[in-house]
Automatic annotation (TrEMBL):
It comes from the Bacteria. It is found in: Cell outer membrane. Residues 438-558 form the OmpA-like domain. PANTHER family: LIPOPROTEIN YIAD-RELATED, STATOR ELEMENT OF FLAGELLAR MOTOR COMPLEX. Its main location: membrane. Keywords: Cell outer membrane, Membrane, Signal. InterPro entries: Bact_OuterMem_StrucFunc, OMP_bac, OmpA-like, OmpA-like_sf. Residues 1-19 form the signal peptide. It holds the Pfam family OmpA. The keyword ATP-binding does not apply. This is OmpA family protein.
């Protein structure tokens, strides 16, 4: 059944191939190609808005400036300064012993006086009848009775008495002013408003862009028909018109849900501050509650206790009787006078020296007063006061003043667009007429690309090789196959993957040069098509291995 189906399909393909018109007047040795020209696609840039324009708000905070202001913290006042009293020292005399009198005893003195004492009185004698005499004793006052004054000295006593050394005076005492403090309120800081930016909100979205629409292309099978009688196996290959699905790209986009706004909030909210205004501050002022006055303070007199002797009883005298001094003497006294003739007999006298006592007397001697010179301080000028002006005191306080309130700066953030390149069908492809091509292009042509071992990176020399050989062939609008090979070192699977990466590297470079990817087929054959004996287990030189690490291209039909 399967064999019959293949036979029928081969027949149909043969009929289709032979139904094609062959080139007219072909020349021997020439090669011709009748290609199915691909649809001509052009790249068209489509701009997708992935992010819409929106407003971006930034806040400029309020500007403040600091202002210095002078305020009175202590009012002008006066203070009283005492002008002290002027004192001078004066000397004064204090009688420490009053004037008195003393009686000075004038002692008694004696005077010697010569007195003729009749020791024998004159008598008469009678002759013949002598008188009768007898001796009698008698007293003679040798010192008559007298008196002497005995001094009764004055009676003195020591008394304390107070002497004023400094007279009583007065001084003025300043009662200083009584100060109090007064708290004054001032606006220390002004407040503006704060701005809170509510940024724009976005919601994610996406947009599907068809970069390449769905197409179909002819694809030749790799396996020829089993009953192919032609010597060229390509004549018996199946051609299938296969659908190529559309290629889409999903672009993530952002939709603007709500644009940016802002909320203005006062920096000072009296309601939130208990009803009080914000930014208020206080400073303390020193004020006079009671002005300074003075009070008179009596300064008592300064006294000094001095002792002085005072005569309590003045001196007197008392009379002391001095008895007379007598001396007993004898004398002859005629008892019987003579009776005869009287013959006067003169009296016999005797000179007696006697001491006459002059009694003691007193004389008054003045005792001068005893004085002492002392010093005392006397107030010449009483104390006074003078008012001294106290200037007011000021202090500098700092206030923060709002110069510019906060504001919102609006910046429009432009929409972000993304340019997506999509392929747009420009010309529908189809069978072309027969076109002469170089026969060598139908075969595999080597590109002189020396791949580094295990590498799939194009060097500068490799890119120059592609520019010189491959790009000119593609300029005629043909399609090419890029075939890449490796040496036998390494596993077959890893070599296949490495060769595919190398072929794709060349393909990517061609696409970067503007060649449509639909005109390029890249194949990696790994180590399946070695050009020499250097298979697994065979020892070869590096040069021999390099010959297998090759990349080729050939023109293919579609």
């Amino acid at each position: 059944m399967k064999k019959s189906f293949l036979t029928i399909l081969s027949f149909i393909v043969s009929i289709t191939v032979f139904a094609q018109d062959l080139p007219t007047n072909p020349e021997p040795g020439k090669c011709y190609v009748r290609c199915v020209t691909p649809d001509v696609w052009v790249n068209q840039d489509v701009t997708i808005q992935v992010s819409p324009a929106y407003k971006k708000l930034s806040t400029v905070p309020a500007k403040y400036t600091t202002v210095n202001e002078e305020v009175v913290v202590e009012n002008a006042s006066q203070r009283l300064e005492v002008v002290p009293a002027v004192y001078e020292t004066q000397e004064f005399v204090v009688t420490v012993n009053e004037a008195a009198q003393r009686l000075e005893k004038v002692p008694s003195r004696t005077e010697t006086q010569t007195e003729t004492v009749v020791v024998k009185e004159a008598s008469q004698r009678l002759e013949l009848v002598p008188a009768v005499y007898e001796t009698q004793s008698f007293e003679v006052i040798t010192q008559p009775a007298s008196q002497r004054l005995e001094l009764v000295p004055a009676v003195y006593e020591t008394q304390d008495f107070t002497v004023v050394t400094q007279e009583a005076s007065q001084r003025l005492e300043v009662i200083p002013a009584v100060y109090g403090t007064e708290t004054r309120t001032y606006k220390k800081r002004e407040y503006g408003t704060s701005l809170k930016v509510v940024p724009a909100s976005f919601s994610p979205n996406y947009q599907v862009i068809e970069t390449k629409p769905a197409t179909a292309k002819w694809q030749m099978s790799d396996t020829p028909a089993a009953e192919c009688q032609s010597s060229d196996p390509n004549d018996c290959r199946y051609w299938c018109y296969k659908s190529v699905p559309a290629q889409n790209i999903t672009i993530n986009t952002t939709d603007l849900t709500s644009d940016a706004t802002f909320i203005r909030t006062p920096d000072c909210d009296p309601n939130a501050n208990g009803g009080e205004d914000c930014g208020m501050s206080t400073y303390t002022v020193k004020v006079v509650t009671t002005p300074a006055t003075t009070r008179v303070i009596d300064i008592p007199a300064v006294t000094k206790n001095v002792k002085k002797t005072v005569m309590v009883t003045p001196p007197t005298t008392r009379v002391i009787e001095i008895p007379e001094v007598r001396k007993t003497m004898k004398r002859v006294v005629m008892v019987t006078p003579p009776t005869t003739r009287v013959i006067d007999i003169p009296a016999e006298t005797k000179t007696v020296t006697k001491t006459i006592i002059i009694p003691e007397t007193t004389r008054v001697v003045d005792i001068p007063a005893v004085t002492k010179t002392m010093k005392r301080v006397v107030m010449v000028t009483p104390p006074t006061t003078r008012a001294i002006d106290i200037p007011q005191k000021t202090a500098t306080i700092k206030k923060t003043v709002l110069t510019e309130d906060s504001k919102v700066v609006e910046t429009v953030v432009p929409a972000i667009n993304k340019t997506v390149t999509k392929e747009v069908l420009q010309t529908k492809g189809g069978l072309t007429t027969w076109k002469e091509v170089e026969c060598t292009l139908l075969e595999y042509n080597d590109l002189n690309i020396n791949w580094n071992l295990g590498s799939a990176t194009l060097t500068g020399a490799a890119k120059a090789e592609i520019d010189a050989k491959l790009l000119p062939a593609l300029s005629d609008g043909v399609s090419v196959e890029i075939a890449s090979h490796t040496d036998s070192r390494g596993s077959k699977e890893s070599n296949r993957l490495l060769s595919e990466r190398r072929a794709q590297a060349v393909t990517n470079y061609l696409i970067s040069k503007g060649i449509n990817s639909s005109r390029i087929v890249s194949n990696g054959y790994g180590e399946s098509r070695l050009v020499n004996r250097c298979s697994d287990g065979v020892s070869c030189t590096e040069r021999e291995h390099l010959a297998n690490r090759r990349t080729q291209f050939r023109v293919i039909n579609q």
